[in-house]
Amino acid sequence: MDTIIPPSRLEAVVEQELDALPIIDIHTHTFDPAFGPLLLWGPDELLTYHYLVAELFRARPDLSPTRFWEMPKTDQADLIWQELFRRRSPLSEACRGVLTVFQRLGLNPDVDTLDPIRAWFRDQSPQTYVDTVFGLAHVQKVYMTNDPLDPIEREVWEKGFERDPRFEAVLSLDSALIHWPAAVPALRALGYDVEEALTGRTLAELRRYLSDWIERMTARYTAISLPPSFRYPNPDSALTLLYTRCVLPICRERQIPATLMIGVRKLANPALRLAGDSVGRSDIETVEALARDFPENRFWVTMLARENMHELAVAARKFANLVPFGCWWLLNNPSLIEEITAMRLELLGLSFVPQHSDARVLDQLIYKWDHSRRIIGRVLAAKYRDLASAGWPITAAAIRRDLATLLSRDPA
Ligand code: RAT
Ligand code: ZN
Predict the structure, then answer these.
(1) Which ligand is nearest to the CA of 275?
(2) Where do runs of H (alpha helix) occur along 60-168?
(3) Which atom of ligand 1 is nearest to the CA of 51?
(4) Around 271, how many Cα atoms within 13 Å sit in the side-chain half-sphere?
């Protein structure tokens, strides 16, 4: 029989079990190595991550974004290193992340130059580096975000390749749906007879597009990143109509979840490109109405505004077909992960997914999981201590089982 862990040892055992847990990362922007240049890795990609680009302009308000974007990537990386690591202590979460990556790789950064680090990376091949990163992050597989309307990505899918089972596919809907009818020419070029007007034929053809690409990619779910203004019901919105009349029926037919990431205000500052997206408070009643009116669909939802997180957890208590996941992007910071994870455990027990990495650069799997594991472990240990105080016996086997429920689970 598994022995009962004394309260004073709970934190250490949770940490140990979490370190040993092979995590399933349900939302990333990284790619199977077969996608070649789409798989980003290495110090220049790490340093030019859009989270850090935003911070560069905090440090250098005088710098023109146009000038920055004209610079070669290595110069951009050098500038970010200089401004955010040399000239001031790299206290932000995104800065700390770069240092965690270097440290876990056994690299000792020289504050004056990135050259030795770049030299180390030149000796890595993408294939072996993927193994290194998955090993250090202790991640068993990741879900990509795949866009058939991206010509570079589509070419790889069309040509076909041997899949690396550690990279699951996800059909991203953003490019096809969000700015309808912007995608009409691209969809037509792929042979789908859609037109701007939302006729029966257009809806049927869009369903065919979704179905074909779910099939081709073996996509495990559909994903969409939505603005705070997204509403359902909303008879005036093409996006809402396309989502409910095309996406949801196809997800039902294919028996895959529909993932919604709600609350991004794209290009609040267009000059900063990806770094210029902001946050807005979204409408929880929309999420509840979708879960209620489409009971046969399974919804995996995250929201970008901290203000939405409590109501999302409450909504999930009302609808079994709704799974909250992750501390997304601007919420992926230790203080917020701590607060959100504790609140979710209190309201939902184990019926949510505490985190995803959102890694855009492969190496980020290392730091995002290293940092999240620590916070989630601390929060869980406190909850187990509370249970122990209530007289409940806690064993390592129970902790292992609970952790697997939280962090080694496929969206289903
Ligand atoms: O976290 C990010 O990198 C964001 O830019 C977005 O990609 C976001 O996660 C999304 O999936 O839309
Ligand atoms: Zn993302």
Answers:
(1) 1
(2) 65-70, 73-81, 93-104, 115-122, 126-137, 151-159
(3) 3
(4) 8
Find the residues whose C-beta lies inside 6 A of ligand 1.
Answer: 29, 225, 261, 264, 274, 329, 358, 360
List the 23-25 sheet strands across, edge first.
Answer: 23-25, 139-143, 167-172, 219-226, 258-262, 299-303, 322-324
Q: Cα of 134 to ligand 2 centre, how many Å?
A: 19
Residues 323-336 pLDDT 10s: 999 999 999 999 99
Distance 329 CA to ligand 1 centre (A): 7
The pLDDT tens digits of the residues spanning 129-184 come to: 999 999 999 999 999 999 999 999 999 999 999 999 999 999 999 999 999 999 99
Count Cβ atoms within 10 A of the Cβ of residue 257 and give its class: 0-12 exposed, 13-18 middle, 19 or more buried. Answer: buried
For residue 223, the ligand 1 atom closest to its alpha carbon is 11
Nearest by Cα to 326 from 267, 247, 219, 411: 411
Q: Are 248 and 297 in contact (CB under 8 A)?
A: yes
